[in-house]
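Protocol step 4 of 6: structure prediction from sequence.
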Amino acid sequence: MAYDLTTEAIAHFIGSFDQVVEEARWRISYDPFKGDGPEFTDPGNLHTVTLNVSAPYQMTRFDPGVDYDIDLPPLPDRFVPISVHLRPDFMPNNHTPFAFELDNPAQLPQSASFAEAPVVFIPPPPSSIATVIVQSNWLSDSDTLMGLDGGTFVSPVAQDLALGWLASVADTLGGPTMPGPPANGNTIKDTAYDAKDAVADFKAAAAAEAGIYTLTDEQWGGTHVNGTLVEGDDVPTLKDALPELPEPNNGAGPAHEVVLGGNTVVNEAYIDLAMADAPVIAAMGNSLSVSSISQVNILSDHDTINGAVQSAGATSNVMMNISTALTLAANSGTDYTEDQHSDGDPTFPSFASVVRLDGDLVNVNYLRQDNQVVDNDIVSTEFGASETFIQTGGNLVLNAATLAQMTYSYDLIVVGGDIINVSMINQINVLLDDDFITYPQDADWTISSGENVLWNQAAIQSVGQDNYQDMPAMFKELGNSLASGSDSVSGEIRSLEQFEGRDSINVLYIEGDLISVQLVYQINVVGDSDQIWQGGPHMEGGGTDASVTAGSNTLANLAVISEFGFDSDIYVGGDTYSDALMHQAGLVVMDESELAGEGEGGLVNEAVAFLMDETDQQTDDGAPGQSGYVHEDALGNDPMGGMVA
């Protein structure tokens, strides 16, 4: 009879349990399926079989069975067209790849070879490029090393509020607001005009405490360092400015090394591009050209050492804003020897090939690099007679991106719409390095709480100078002719001096706009407010000399936009707009009331008196101990040090 599921499960369990019991009693018959198997005898010599395999069919090379025969359009008599057999993926758009020029085609013998005939290469249409790169690093490395009880420490909440306030100051002192990446292909032009409006409407903030330098138009050329034009070897280098960090002494130097800072935070971006370019460009619409570099450095470096507030400021820190705007001439023509027209008469091309591109030709690169680092360390320890090396900083955070984009060049480019070229770089460094250090007065300590490097360096450079002119009638006629579908280029245009000595010219017709938008945004926000408390009396017999590195942080933003092209004569049918801006700002918070005082951004609610030990933590000059923002809570309630930016 059939059982229900519950009864069936219980029956199987009882049977399984019975087998386990029988096995435990060593009864050989507990499982009838585990008896002895049959005995196997020696099989002796095995019978072998030899197989002979033959393959009478030979493999042939793979043939996809696809042939591309590209027919040349009608050419003048001095050109002999041929049919070219190509791989299917070699030549896109079925355009004309080659044409051979002959001096006298009528006298060409049937057995003539084309090997020595000059070749005219007709490049294909260029491709559009759009790249969006966002790189972000978020690091929380707030270490706590407690070897001693005692001491009073700053709340991490107060440090986070101070860092957030500094970041807001950087936004206030910054340059034009950079637009975000285009939402889609239809908004690329809008993004370019948003950047144009931001640069045109920008007004620098009024801040007496900050060093702000803004240059526009023709003033911004060359290399400016913190608002000063410099040349050649006078331009500082980051390599020479980098701080040196201590390493384990191995018996040399101070007996005790404590490295709480020493963080290196870097954003690096390089864009090299060569868009479709030509010695002669005609745009039926408008021309827009905008270049902008904005650089901001914000530093707070108030150190409290044995209760006395010391502001290192710019004396032991390096803050550099370096911007370069450079345009170099390029040789846009071809060198021709005198034997090409030895009779002294100039020669001009008798043939022009036209390559068409429907829609817009765009090159858009948006790079955002963001580093957010919190390294607020707390060390409370007592040094003995032996050597000590403690390192709680020394982090390396890096964003790096390199783009190299190149396409074909032409002799003449005709744009049915607008020409737009926008290059924009924004760089921000923010560092909070307010350290709190307490140690016995009779100990021999070397304190390095400054020596930070805040470095912004940007360059917008181009090879090829553009000369903008009003459009003559012949180019208007050419633009209308190409728009109607004709591929003819008048002899008047082919006789321009830029084409002298050429046998033929390549023409690119862009139905829409020619757009280049390059946007680079880099920001470093670092909190390195370290606290060290060392108790205990001076130990006789040595071992109390110590070196503390609470600064030596490096924040660097490096960006280069390089564009390579021709020296071009650009004929514009509409309006021509050009604008350039260089903005540099630097602020060292010298008055601690800016961090602790009342008012917007102040931390007065977090600022209380710094509690000191009256014997071991008394200041050298007897001045009362204080600090800009200190909380009674020994460790605070936010050990992860949440970032506010």
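Step 5 (inspection) to follow. The radius of gyration is 38 Å.
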